[in-house]
Amino acid sequence: MASMSHSSIALCGASASASASVLLSTTGVSLRTLGRAMVASTKRSNLYVTARLKKGKKFDHPWPSNPDPNVKGGVLSYLSTFKPLGDTQKPVTLDFEKPLVELEKKIVDVRKMAAETGLDFTDQIITLETKYRQALKDLYTHLTPIQRVNIARHPNRPTFLDHIHNITDKFMELHGDRAGYDDPAIVTGIGTIDGKRYMFIGHQKGRNTKENIMRNFGMPTPHGYRKALRMMYYADHHGFPIVTFIDTPGAYADLKSEELGQGEAIANNLRTMFGLKVPILSIVIGEGGSGGALAIGCANKMLMLENAVFYVASPEACAAILWNSSKAAPEAAEKLRITSRELVKLNVADGIIPEPLGGAHADPSWTSQQIKIAINENMNEFGKMSGEELLKHRMAKYRKIGVFIEDAPVEPEIKVNMKRRDAVISNSRKLEGEVEKLRDQILKAKETSSEEAPSSEVLNEMIKKLKSEIDDEYTEAARAMGLEERLTAMRGEFSKASAEEHLMHPILIEKIEKLKEEFNTRLSEAPNYESLKSKLDMLRDFSRAKAASEAASVRNEINKRFQEAVDRPEVREKVEAIKAEVASSGASSFEELSDELKEKVLKTKGEVEAEMAGVLKSMGLELEAVKPYVAEQIFVPSENIQEKVEKLNREISEKIEEVVRTPEIKSMVELLKVENAKASQTPGDTKVSQKIETLEQQIKQKIADALSMSGLQEKQEELEKELAVARELAAEKSQESLKEDDDDDDDDEDGSESEKPEIINPHFA
Over the Cα atoms of the chain, what is R_g? Predict the structure, then answer.
């Protein structure tokens, strides 16, 4: 045997083992023989060969072998590290879902009360459940774009592997990009649905914080896209249809990913997917962000779950870029048109997969079955196409996105100062904040009945701002509907006709009415209709608040002035003297007083009323009449009479509207508006005032003649007679009940000396 040095040799690793094998093979001695020789002649040589064999342990899957007995073979036995969560996910309530949570809490409380007390609350529970279902339906059928974004990002929303678990018979995950890395943010594998094999590729988010960190929150690196590309080539080679699931905020944009060629990896996927001759179906199950979503989304068809979103930039990023604030995300989400319905209209998406009320997380299994149905339907359609037809179909899908019409007239470009636009939006945001603050202040004042309600000056300023905003909204709506030029021309004709001081021509009135009707009919189609409607509601609410505030202010001022008038020494002395005389007379009612005392009471009453009338006159108010407060005279008509009154009021209103729409009255009303405008410019012009008064009398007379001709006046008189009879009957019953009460009081007397009732006129109190 060849001589060997007496130094120790350590053999470790694959390369070292290879070197040792080569060395020993050149000596002509096998490794096994050498091992035996070394053991036998340990004392003669210092060369030792030591080998440690670690006993392999069979891999134990962390899930039961057959978790779902309804699925042959147990679907989870084919998965890798994905397993059911040990604990159920914590419920997460979005901001707009809080009213539903309150209803749920009420239902739970009522059921708990029923269980504790043993009482039957079935009707109440059924009512609350019906109310809850209706509220849920109303909420989820009128979601705003930003609300759908929040649902798409819901922490409990089912992930790619959750759906795979529900729709596949078998699934085997495939790993690695064959370049040294396996990105957990993209999962790939082969699975079967109803016996047909598919290549599944999808973004995988985590279901809790630990998983999200491991999955990088569903944001792939270049390794993930290269793994997906490898599986696409594999599927194309073996003829497997490809189904991709999109659910990512976007590709991971860190420094390392850029160094490894993030853009190149995405671009390579885009190019390759347009050349694959197998069917490709993409399904957006959550959010699809930018190129990170498109890198596995170039398909023959792209379907979206009902509450999924697909965007080039997130609403928050868009708002930060355009408006320098992420708080404008709701407006950005609306402008981006990122929801499934909008994208189907734009031909970006090809279909919508329904979700249960409450979102996909409300019933993941049902949502997965809808996805399975969609996959089977579309793959049956693609199965009839050849490879070349699939390529043409895929190309045609993206060629039809966006419509271009050649030789069509183009509106002149409107140049907008960006900074000025930013200022307008900033002012709009500021106004919204002021409106909310003022509303809270008004509601708080109503609830606490305090005097901390906003002043009339504050309300006037807010109403002025809202009117300005509403004018801008109307202008924008007219521009969007293409009516701005017609409105401007009509405004010019109206101004010209108003300046000529004669009745407006019936043709011009008809043109104005037609344009007005067209504008009102098409107003709901304007893109800013919701904003305009919201501001009109705000204006109405604040106008009512202003009227209530002014009425309360006037009422407080009147009460203060009345109190001052009554507290004057001369008035108080007269009132106290009359009180003393009435008390000493021993009379129990006004009728029992002597004629002289009655005259004194009436005289004092007249003086007090004169003082009150003077107070009102000093405030610019007129006193029409003074009615004594008698509680028993309150009269509530029967339901039959109320229905008749309401019906007559409707008929009168309809008749008045019909009369006002006639050309003659219209022209008189327009002329009256012109004269009122002139009167506001020249307040002291008596000629204009007389003309206004004459026109008002003529219009009233025309309406009165039309009402008398229609027979409504006779109906009103008959109804007034019926009301008078009913009022008399009610008064008689009231007097009878008062007499019975007096008799009861007399019976209750026990003979002891009691104080005599003090008879005072209500106006003296």
Answer: 43
